[in-house]
Amino acid sequence: MEEAFMQRTATCGSLRAADEGKTVVLNGWVHRDRNHGALHFINLRDRYGMTQVVVDDDASPELQKAAGELKLEYCIAVKGTVRRRPDDMINPEMATGEIEVKAERIDVLSKCDVLPFMIDEENNAREDLRLKYRYLDLRCNGMQKRIALRHEIVKAIREYFYKTDFLEIETPTLIRSTPEGARDFLVPSRIYPGKFFALPQSPQLYKQLLMVSGFDKYFQIARCYRDEDPRGDRQLEFTQLDIEMSYVKRDDVLSLMEDLFGDVFRKVLNVELPAHFRRLSYHDAMNTYGSDKPDLRFGLEMHDAASFASKSTFNAFTETLAAGGAVKYIVAPKTEGHDYTRKYLGELEAAAKIYGAHGMAWMKADGGTVTGGVSKFFAGMEKEVLAETGAKDGDVILLVAHQDWKKCCTSMGAVRSRLGADLGLIKPGYEFCWIIDFPLFEYNEDEGHWEAAHHMFSMPQAEYLETLEENPGAVKGDLYDLVLNGYELASGSIRIHDVELQKRIFRICNIPDEVSKERFGFLLDAFRFSPPPHGGIAPGIDRLCMIVANEQSIKEVIAFPKNTAALSPMDDSPSPVEEKQLEELHLSIKKPE
Q: Could you count the other beta carbons within 10 Å of the beta carbon of residue 140?
């Protein structure tokens, strides 16, 4: 029978000077091992911290031998006595830096093979290595801290909803496929050959059904799945805080979110947020910042250039404006240590072109006039241009023209974002804002029909109810997005709770009655039985944790993420399955050509 291991009586982060003289057992990994002849210093690590273990030069031969055989990341048990370090040996960088443990016994619990990378504060190995050996990557202090931070955030969220009379209710993971957004993940049914479940893109329909059921305040930390290409702030599977409430209007939802995040940031980060977040209409956000998720930690607002561009001799501007298009400008400020070279201006232009701009024009404020770039087309108007833009000596006026107002704004917005980062204009901290008054519909040029800008269950604003079909492009929805530091953190709406109105929305989105009955019949049936007015919102947990942790990718706050190719190098998934499994599911694989 295997001998029981020495079980820890303290963690590697808990011991302090007040514990001097205590006999303790520590369990953990060998983080560092410094061998000074007969004197050994071992930094022992667990998720709580680090403790220095010392094997003195007068230790027994057995203990000396055990210490000498240790290697990095061996998992060991140490029994010893806590003692204070000499004053000149105190390590202020360690929480346990005032003490050390004089070892009396060391047992190796398990040995470690050659490491693919060093376990340290942060892992700088290639992403493929980090994800292949994710269990080792997770031992690094940075990942340990971020996963613990995520835990604290989710814990604070749950505590908030428990004290505000919400019920936490789970919705199913195997559901009917109701394609209305991204591509569904499909799950074949063994019992019913040829039929499929889908994994939920969100609990949208089920939380609305819970409102019909009378559960007026619902929340869930929900796992969601979308079969779409990954990116820095998106994964195939993700986690959202799902919220729905009955008998509410938009401002009730917005106030709840402001109170929730105020509570969470106070508890977890000791940060005091404003009681209410700034609100911007979709039009104003696009027109001023070139984005419906603007980063408000810096200025660089965009402005219309029509007042002076229309008087220029630059055809790209005058023809665009005559055709009903837009010309926008930003004043890029003179900044110490930063030059607006032709190479850099070319990089800004490339950023604008990604979003549809045909090019980017520029001119420089210089000695009370404008020079370079397109300045020659403004001859005689130099003072007017400077007065209109407010540009000062050394500032550069950047301009983008496009016949499509939205493309003009998003192109200029990309330039704004690049400048904010490159010029060091982004202030530390957290800037929340609400984006409201979104268009309810957007036109799909490829397929030639209208579709929902967010989703088809969002209520139109009351003034548009009688004229929905006449001009769908003008309809504003009772929609709202919560934005944090340039990321869309949450999206929500007041929902439709009237069967006939829901059918009208489906028809506008090119879904006839017979198709809507087939796809969403269970929701439409439920709406026949006195549904209450309701609305909700769903903040992304992964994205929130990423922003709070000051990271650029949600992979840094997810324990086992997929890589940018939507693969898991650690367990080699997705992977083939045995022919027998396919036969049980009545499936055959069609190989790609």
A: 20
Q: How many residues does the chain have?
A: 593
Q: Tokens in use for 445?
A: 């040029």
Cross-strand bridge partners of residue 161? none
pTM, two decimals, is 0.93
Task: Tell the residue number behind the tokens 């050509």, with chain if given.
Answer: 593
Q: Which runs of E-coded beta strand occur in 421-533?
A: 432-436, 441-444, 449-452, 479-484, 487-494
Residue 463 is classified by DSSP as: G
Helix (H, G, I), strand (E, B) or coil at 247: coil
Q: Is 15 exposed, middle or buried (0-12, 13-18, 19+ CB in 10 A)?
A: buried
Tell me the C-alpha distance between 161 and 241, whole Å.
Answer: 11
Are β-strands 479-484 and 361-366 bridged in parallel, bridged antiparallel, or unpaired?
A: unpaired
State the Cα–Cα distance between residues 8 and 532, nearest whole angstrom. 55
Find all residues with CB under 8 Å of 89, minimum gap 6, and list them: none
Tell me the per-residue pLDDT of 180-227, one tens digit each, with 9 for 90 and over: 668 999 999 999 999 999 999 999 999 999 999 999 999 999 999 999
Angle in degrees, CA 563, 568, 569, rounded to 5? 95
Determine contact, residues 383/314, Cβ cutoff 8 Å.
no
Residues 313/343, Cβ–Cβ less than 8 Å? no
For 418, the enclosing helix (H) or strand (E) is helix 405-422
Cα separation, 490 vs 483, in Å, equals 7
* Contact predicate 534/497, CB 8 Å: yes
Closest residue by Cα to residue 182 from 200, 169, 166: 200
- pLDDT tens string 255-288: 999 999 999 999 999 999 999 999 999 999 999 9
Q: Report the Cα–Cα distance between both ends of the chain, in Å, rounded.
A: 58
Closest CA to 142 of 129, 128, 157, 130: 130
Q: What is the b/e burial string over 72-102, where b = at least 16 CB atoms within 10 angstroms of the residue's CB?
A: ebbbbbbbbebbebeeeeeeeeebbbbbbbe
